[in-house]
What we know:
Belongs to the EXO84 family. Keywords: Exocytosis, Protein transport, Transport. One of its GO terms (cellular component) is exocyst. By secondary structure, this protein is α+β, with helices and mostly antiparallel strands. It has 21 helices and ten strands. Helices cover 66% and strands 9% of the residues. β3 and β4 form a beta hairpin.
Amino acid sequence: MSIDLHRFANDNLQPEEFVRKSLGDANEENIRSFYKSLVDAKHVVGGDLQRNVYRNYTEFVSISKEISNLDADVLRIKEYLNELKSIWESFLQMTQDDHQTTQSSRIILPDRKRSDLLGDTHAIHRAQILSLWESVEGAQRFIPQAQHKHIVRECVDMYEINPKTLQSRQTVHLFLLNDCLLVARKRSNHRLVAEYCWSIQDLTIMDMKDTEELKRAFRIVVYPQTFIYQAERLEDKLGLLNAYKRLMDDHHEDKPMDTPVKAISGAPSGQQLHPEKEKYLVELPDQLEVLIALREFEKSVTYIEKARHIVLTSPSSFPIIREAREHVAHYTDILCSIVSRDLSNTLLTKIQFQRYVNWLLRLEQSEKAREVFLATRSMIIKKRIRQLVFGGDITTYISELALVVFTLIRNTCEWYRDSFKQNEMASGFVTWVREQTEIYADIYRRQVFGQKLGCQAIADCFKSTLEHCSILRKVGLDLKFLLEDLFLDNVKETVMNYKQRNMEKVEKFAKNDNFMIVSGQGLGTDVKVTSSVVSFYNLLIKFTNDICLLSRVQMYSTVIESICSLTEHYLRMMIQESRKNEDNVSCLYTTRKRGTYTLTENNCFNECVICIG
């Protein structure tokens, strides 16, 4: 028998339904074949899992090596920063040395107006844009004329690289302007044609480490696309990266000055995200990917909590904040899904359970945590019930069933109380307790009331149920009233059926009565009655004692009505039978006159009232 492994990958697979369909009409040979197929499939899946583990481990090792290579890059950046610092200090020293020379020069050279200098700068920028339009076909579509638009850096003879094959696609020129980046490809006739133009705010230029296949390369990321370019000389690549870095720094410095309206309206004018926070948010996706893959859930939750705090306390006007908010929501869903799946494990200990619930609560998923936990506990109760063995004694089985169900409910209450501290979470748990009690009541009805047991057996089963249910009082729950309400209709039905069976016996007593005077047998030596009266009296006493085992205060009217119905039915049957035997009318008259029936009914009423009370 073949097995489709793809069906086992379906989350909605119902094992019981699958086995019922597969082995519904199977014989022993088919069952053995099905078992062998399952074992073979298990070995196949185990082999695939082992190979996946080896492959993932290899990828993890390669990624770790890449991360270790970043240390060298960081050291190189540190050296560049030190060189830049020394250059800056040299510039400051030169500025101080030239200060006196500048003062003396002002005496000789006439001062020019600031407007003249700005005019010269604008003229130079305008000439740059016009020259760009002439040298690059289609550039005017991407770059319109503007007062402050100018070229920051021009990189010639760059090569666009195919990211998959790392082979050169075409020769391009890059024009870095103060607000955008223009990419122009070079035709065979050496004519430049504009191909891409991106806003400086929408792209990121990143350096790439040299490899044997690719050197002097850098990456331009325009989400969701990534482009790789290669420079002929290292100086060209470094010049572009430095120009881009200075340009982005200038944008960050000028941004508060360009938005005075926001400052007036109450926005955080002049505010800038702290570099450490910005770095933290930039590294957020990569860090969470690694931590979740390594199942380091504590660190993952801590990382998300800190990122959420940064997002909530920072202005949403920053693009990185909006992006980080999406990342937090995305990885929160992923982490909740994994933790919830682990929480549904029925073999968890209390410490493990509390740890998983705590992670979900910190991720603000309290409803999800409660839902998964209670579903898991329901599964455990169902599993334990199936493990019970029915040995033929219904009283013993019900006692074991009550012990399992109510003990697990008590343990669940203790675990729930220690983990969910919020008061608003209590209502959901009480609802779950009622559902489990109703499930127990359904099993109880099928096993006890469905078997037509005697009143004594039913009373023993209910007594053991209440005894085991009383352990819930230690955790503040009392389900006695709920169980009585759930079984009330069944007990009434049992009493009515018992009454109906006794009515049939009463008919037999009346029909078999020959109206001969016999001894009262416990009614007194001076009481002379017929045989049916004695039989009816004993039946009524037994009926009263039996139903008193099951009755409660709310059943008082049902019990009294049943006794009255039996007595009335007996009297009617006796009258009917006496008419058939007219020779014995005087005997019947004598019996009724002595008040035997009234005595019998009053005694039964008194017995019933005492038992119910």
